[in-house]
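Human: If only I could read backbone structure tokens as easily as an amino acid sequence. Underneath my words sits a plain record pairing an amino acid chain with its backbone structure tokens. Take your time, and here it is.
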Amino acid sequence: MSEIKVLIVEDEPVIAENIAMYLNNNDFVVSGIAYDSEEAKSQLINNTPDAVLLDINLDTDIDGVQIADYINRNFHLPFLFLTSYADKETLDKAKKVEPWGYVVKRFNEKTL
């Protein structure tokens, strides 16, 4: 079985590097890390992964839910949200783009 290439979209470099380390230690390949929405779109176009891990709150005008919508419309890739937001409003917004999963931060290697 070939390794699954995962794009990480996370605006906090330390968190992104921890996620990358966890994935690389568990038979996944990190195809790239995008720290904002423009990097995410560029990675999706130029280095299309097999799956995407998305933070919902990015320090840009476009949030993770909007990137998820872009993925659904253009790439049809599975994606999961990794976020510190678990309030009803955020969950309802996230559900509309039909993620494959929703992981609330603080997570560890085993839960990821």
Remarks:
- The helical segments are 13-24, 37-46, 64-74, 88-95.
- The mean pLDDT is 90.
